[in-house]
Each structure stands twice: as C-alpha cells, then as structure tokens.
C-alpha cells in the first residue's frame, strides 16, 4: 500500500512540475519585448497611410503583431487616458496638462519625433486658381466673406487638421456657415473632386499615397500653392519646401509611448526613427527627421560580362 502511495505521490509531483513548466514556456513565448509580441496603436487618421506602411514592414521583419486603429486626434489622445492603448501617433506632442495626468500615474511618456507632415489645401481640377493666401483661409474661418472661396471642407470636427486650423484662426470651433466636415480624408478628396469652388483641407499623405480606388478622385484635384502670412510667394507642400520651412502649414509628427516598460512601443518607435523607417517616410512624401544615408560603391575596374 505504501509502495502505491509513493508512486501516486511522485506522479502527482511530476504532473505539477510539468504543468508549471508548460505555463512558464507559454508565458515566455507570449512575453512582449521591444521586437516581439502584440500591441495596439492608435493613430491620427490623417497619418494613417504612412503608418500602415511602417507597420507592414515592421511585422515582416520581427515576430510582432500590431493592431492599428485609425481615429480622430481627440479619440486618439483619449485612448491613452482610457488605457485602451499605451501607444499613440499624433501630429502634436502632449500638453502640460496631459503630461500631468501621466505624472499622477507615475508614468513618463517617451515621445519620439519621427517626421514633418503638411496640411494640404486642395481644389477641383476645373478651378483656375492654383494659389491661395493663408490669410484668406483664416478670414473665411473667422466668418468673413472671401469671394474666391465658396466653402471649406474638413475631414472630421475632432481631427488634427481642424484643431490646427482653428488654432491659426484663433477660434475654438469651426463656423457653421460655409465650413463642412465629413468623417475621413478620402471623403474630403472625393467631395472636392466633384464640386467646384470648394477647398479641401487634408493630410498631404493622403494625396501622395492614395488607395487604388481613390486614385481617380486624387487625379481630379489640384494641390494648391499656399502664400504664408508673412510671404508674398506661394509654395507647394513638397519635401524640399517643408525642409526649408517655406511651406506655411507644416507640422511635426510624434510617437507617444506610455507603456512604462520596454515593450513594442519602444521597438516600433526606434524602428520608425531608424534608417528603414526614415526611408519609408522619405518615400511617402513626408520629411523624415534625418535623411537616410546613401552608400556609393566605387569600382576601379568595370567588368563587361557580355560576350
């Protein structure tokens, strides 16, 4: 009887050891690191195309799975406070009040600037004007009549473009008369392509990297040259003009990592700010924080393989 009791005891002990070993192995396998695991990232909708490209390459290189959720700026910021996500991508950094919220939680957000974007103004292809003065846009938003502007079209009342333009105009909310808003940048582009006299306000990334179904609408709009408040010359939102600070509607982009530990937020931010990520930014039409280097190989002898 004692013999069977000892056998049962050792079988029971072996089962416990096996159970914990399996759990530990599973836990180790699913453990998040800077280059492995899964995470959710909220992104300002105006920046979605270029971030989708970053995520695709990042997932292909590492054992990582990122769920990208595209929302308005207000919803993206709120996702950090509601702890729906600890990682957000914005066209602004956090305010002093927002930083204080994290300070109370004993979290120090890691903020990485990775590119400079531009707010683009677009008009219907049939419009003759290729130049618009920023002072006229601001005046129209302040409720004044501007003969050359029939109406302004924004993507979303809570978007970063609305917040950015409201700040320039010194107003708290867009006026009800003559200013319209939809839900996405694609809807703005489509509406302007079909309606003459309207000026759309979108992230330039949506024009340089449209989805195939949107190409025909992008082809039917003009990207306007914008004359700054203190300039007599008008400039297009090109990489060169953004780099030289000539285009008046440029804004810096940031990855806000509030994970509080060395997880995918840190790895993804390092990737986007690194050589590969910056090349993706450059290809997208935005301005990278640092221009990726080019390796040039000089050969003394040129061999002709053709015989």
Automatic annotation (TrEMBL):
<keyword id="KW-0732">Signal</keyword>
<feature type="signal peptide">
    <location>
        <begin position="1"/>
        <end position="23"/>
    </location>
</feature>
<protein>
    <submittedName>
        <fullName>Phosphate transport system substrate-binding protein</fullName>
    </submittedName>
</protein>
<dbReference type="InterPro" id="IPR050811">
    <property type="entry name" value="Phosphate_ABC_transporter"/>
</dbReference>
<feature type="domain" description="PBP">
    <location>
        <begin position="37"/>
        <end position="274"/>
    </location>
</feature>
<dbReference type="Pfam" id="PF12849">
    <property type="entry name" value="PBP_like_2"/>
</dbReference>
<dbReference type="InterPro" id="IPR024370">
    <property type="entry name" value="PBP_domain"/>
</dbReference>
């Amino acid at each position: 009887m004692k013999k069977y009791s000892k056998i049962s005891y050792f079988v029971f002990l072996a089962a416990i050891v096996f159970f914990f070993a399996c759990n530990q192995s599973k836990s180790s396998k699913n453990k998040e690191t800077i280059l492995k695991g899964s995470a959710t990232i909220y992104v300002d909708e105006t920046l979605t195309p270029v971030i989708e490209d970053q995520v695709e390459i990042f997932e292909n290189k590492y054992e990582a799975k990122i769920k990208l959720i595209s929302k308005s700026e207000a919803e993206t910021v709120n996702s950090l406070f509601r702890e729906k996500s600890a990682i957000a991508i914005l066209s602004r950094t956090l305010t002093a009040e927002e930083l204080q919220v994290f300070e109370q939680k004993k979290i120090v957000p890691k903020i990485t600037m990775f590119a400079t974007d531009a707010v683009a103004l677009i008009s219907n292809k049939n419009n003759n004007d290729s130049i618009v003065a920023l002072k006229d846009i601001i005046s129209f938003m302040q409720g004044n009549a501007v003969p050359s502007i029939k109406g302004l079209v924004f993507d979303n009342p809570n978007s970063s473009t609305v917040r950015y333009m409201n700040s320039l105009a010194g107003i708290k909310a867009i006026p009800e008369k003559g200013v319209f808003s939809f839900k996405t940048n694609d809807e703005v582009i489509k509406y302007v392509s079909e309606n003459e006299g309207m000026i759309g306000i979108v992230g330039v990334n949506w024009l340089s990297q449209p989805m195939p179904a949107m190409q025909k609408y992008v082809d039917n709009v003009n990207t306007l040259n914008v004359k700054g408040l203190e300039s007599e010359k008008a400039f297009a939102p090109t990489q060169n003009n953004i780099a030289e600070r000539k285009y008046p509607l440029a804004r810096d982009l940031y990855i806000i990592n509030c994970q509080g530990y060395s997880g995918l937020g840190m790895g993804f931010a390092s990737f986007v700010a690194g050589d590969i990520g910056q090349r993706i930014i450059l290809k997208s039409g935005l301005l990278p924080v640092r221009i990726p280097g080019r390796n040039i190989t000089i050969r003394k002898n040129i061999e002709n393989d053709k015989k």
